[in-house]
Design brief:
This protein has 17 helices and no strands. By secondary structure, it is mainly alpha-helical. It starts with a helix and ends with a helix.
């Protein structure tokens, strides 16, 4: 309790100064992490998310999604108890990538199609990485099993579907929509979708780079190494195998570096993909206006556990069980950083400068 009270007493200015000082202290590590994150954005995130993002924006802006939901009207209204026009949004969120579902729900919330409470509830099962990124991660976890991604995909999407089914009894059955929809596609719609998708990708990549810079601080301080070694001692798993998962808790794109026995690695991969990582939830928070994503964050924990067991049950059907391990990727050395007084010295100098500036300002006022 004292620790949290102490955190609340820290002013935003002090926190920003501390982060800036830490970035100077770990400038080399942060630059290295940002370089890897930028390469990952170009090679994985943008190719896998941009097209889906533009297409999903186009479906919403042209109101085509309303037509897509009508064949699933009975299942959507009576089984999942959600409006038929929302069911396509649920499907798109499983295919388009993490923040896209939140962005679409936010658009429906701002247009008045969803209430604040409905938006918060429906977001709980509309968080998924999309098949393109799942394929990339599964290829690293099980390189000789070309269909391993299916088990991971079933785990992540199956967990969201189960969450929707479990919460359905607490929702009322919505009425059937009688609205007549006549979608129109113009060149302006395509341009606007491409522009909106580029803005979304810029925000996503910027958040990934920001988290990468913070990961440089964590690496320099030995935080990630310490977490990996602690979990290794508790689970008897090699620290080198735990390390990518420790990084993925903060930034999910680090799952591309997982390796080990696929029967154990793939379910964990599905669980982490279902959770999303702190960077993903920061992205979701950024696109949500008018409603809170906190409830969805809490729901990620049971969804991650469900995804683990679903993926584990499908591994024998889609994976080559005879392949046990793969070679480890090249990671920076996992070790604790030696103590350096540089951080304290820089922080002390910046504190003195700030105090001196305050004294100068007071003297000018006098």
């Amino acid at each position: 309790m004292k620790f949290f009270r102490l955190i609340k007493q820290i002013s935003p200015a002090t926190f920003v100064i501390f982060i800036a000082t830490a970035l100077i202290w770990a400038s080399r590590e942060s630059a290295k992490e940002c370089a890897k994150a930028a390469a990952l954005c170009i090679s994985v995130l943008i190719p896998s998310l941009f097209a889906f993002t533009a297409a999903s924006k186009l479906l919403i802006s042209t109101e085509t999604y309303k037509l897509l939901g009508r064949p699933f009207s009975l299942f959507s209204r009576y089984i999942l108890r959600m409006p038929e026009e929302f069911f396509p949004v649920f499907l798109i969120s499983q295919l388009a990538g993490y923040p896209i579902g939140a962005a679409l729900i936010n658009e429906m919330r701002e247009s008045g199609r969803l209430s604040e409470g409905s938006a918060e509830e429906l977001l709980c099962f509309c968080i998924a990485p999309g098949p393109a990124y799942i394929m990339a991660v599964s290829a690293a976890a099980a390189p000789r099993s070309s269909e391993a991604w299916i088990a991971v995909m079933l785990g992540v999407s199956g967990a969201n579907l189960i969450a929707a089914l479990v919460t359905a009894p607490f929702r009322t059955i919505p009425e059937k929509s009688g609205e007549k929809v006549t979608p129109r596609l113009t060149a302006e719609d395509i341009t606007a979708a491409a522009h909106s998708a580029s803005e979304s990708m810029t925000m996503i990549c910027a958040m990934v780079l920001l988290m990468a810079a913070l990961m440089g601080i964590f690496t320099k301080a030995g935080l990630l190494s310490g977490i990996s070694m602690l979990i290794s001692k508790l689970t008897d798993a090699p620290a080198a195998q735990v390390y990518p998962f420790a990084r993925s808790f903060f930034e999910i794109s680090n799952l591309c570096g997982v390796f080990g026995e696929q029967s154990a690695i793939l379910p964990l991969t599905a669980a982490f993909l279902s959770f999303g990582g702190l960077c993903v939830h920061m992205q979701i928070k950024a696109v949500c206006s008018g409603f809170s994503p906190l409830k969805a964050l809490l729901w990620r924990v049971p969804c991650a556990v469900t995804a683990y067991f679903i993926c584990r049950s499908f591994i024998p059907k889609f994976c080559v069980v005879s392949v046990i391990t793969v070679s480890a990727p090249v990671y920076e050395e996992i070790r604790f950083s030696e103590y350096s007084p540089l951080l304290s010295i820089i922080l002390l100098i910046m504190t003195i400068l700030i105090l001196s500036q305050k004294n100068v300002a007071k003297q000018k006022k006098i």
